[in-house]
Amino acid sequence: MIRKKSTNQKPVIDLTGPDGNAFALLVYVQQWCKQLGWDHKPIIKDMMSGDYEHLLSVIEKHFSDMVILER
Q1: Which residues, in sequence order, are bridge partners of residue 68?
Q2: I need a labelling partner for 16 at 20 to 30 A (CA). Which of 26, 44, 59, 71 fits?
Q3: CA 60, CA 7: separation in Å to the nearest integer?
Q4: Do the Cβ atoms of 22 and 51 come closer than 8 Å?
Q5: Which residues lie below 8 Å from residue 67, measured CB to CB, with a gap of 6+?
Q6: How many whole angstroms separate alpha carbon 71 and alpha carbon 66?
Q7: pLDDT exceeds cutoff 90 at 60
Q8: Which residues neighbour 55 within 8 Å (Cβ) at sequence distance 6 or greater?
Q9: pTM as predicted
Q10: What is the SS3 assignment for 23-67?
Q11: Beta-bridge mates of residue 25
């Protein structure tokens, strides 16, 4: 579940819920890349090149200014 803490804060993705599923996170990344005008393919490829923790680290690397991943 994605929730907003306040109007000026970043959305929070609860990794223990359905939005924390790797496939859901891949969809979010595609949407964020589209919003930013980025090519999502290299980021998705990097995300899929490792385990779940690697996937999360790639999200943090590219999108930490847009979203908070909560465990």
Answers
A1: 12
A2: 44
A3: 21
A4: no
A5: 10, 11, 12, 13, 28, 32, 59
A6: 17
A7: yes
A8: 22, 25, 47, 48
A9: 0.86
A10: HHHHHHHHHHHHHHCCCCHHHHHHHCCCCHHHHHHHHHHHHCCCC
A11: none
Task: Tell me if 5 sits within 8 A of 67, measured CB to CB.
Answer: no
Confidence of residue 11 (pLDDT cuts 50, 70, 90): very high
If we measure between CA atoms, which residue out of 61, 58, 70, 52 comes closest to residue 13? 70
Q: Can you tell me which residue has the tokens 């496939």?
A: 23
Task: Give the pLDDT of residue 5.
Answer: 54
In the chain, where the domains are located: 12-70
